[in-house]
Amino acid sequence: MSDIMRPISIDALLDWVMQEYKKSGTIFGVRKFFKPEGDKQISLFNEKMETPIGPAAGPHTQLAQNIVASYLTGSRFFELKTVQILDGEDLPVAKPCISARDEGYNCEWSTELRVPQAFEEYVKGWFVLKLLAREFDLGDPDGFIFNMSVGYDLEGIKTPKIQKYIHEMQDAKATPIWAECVEAAKSRLNQFTRVDEDYIDHISPKVSHSITLSTLHGTLPHEIEQIAVHLLDEQKLNTFIKCNPTLLGYEYARKTMDELGFDYMEFDDHHFTEDLQFEDAVPMLQRLQDLADKEQLNFGVKITNTFPVDVGQDELPSEEMYMSGRSLYPLSIMVAKRLSDAFHGELQISYSGGADVFNMKDLFEAGIWPITVATTLLKPGGYQRLTQMANVVSTLDYPTHVKVDLEKVSKLVEKSTETAKYQKSIKLPGSPKIKETVPLLSCYTAPCRGTGGCPIDQDIPAYLRYVEEGKYLDALKVIVDKNPLPFITGTICAHPCETKCTRQFYEGAIDIRGVKLEAAEHAYDELLASMVKPEPVTDAPKTAVVGGGPAGISAGYLLAREGFPVTVFEKDTTLGGVCSQVVPEFRISMESVQKDVEMARFMGAEFKTGKAAPSLEDLRAQGYEKVIYAIGAWKHNNLKLEAGEAINSLEFLVKTRQNTQENPYGENIVVIGGGNTAMDCARAAKQLPGVKEVSLVYRRDKRNMPADEEELYLALDDDVTFRELLAPIKLVDGKLTCEVMKLGARDASGRKRPEPTGEFVEVKADVVISAIGEKVDDTFFNSVGIETDNLGRVVVNPQTLETNLKDVFVVGDANLGPATIVEAIADSTKACNAIVEVHNRNYERANLNIDTASVRAKRGDMVIPETPMSQAARCLECSTVCESCVDVCPNRANIVVMVHDEAQIMHVDRMCNECGNCETFCPYSSAPYKDKFTLFNSEEDFHDSTNEGFYVVDPSRKLVLVRNKGEENTFSLNDGNVKVANGLQDMMETVIDDYAFVLAN
Question: How many C-beta atoms surround the C-beta of residue 430 within 10 A?
Answer without folding.
Answer: 11
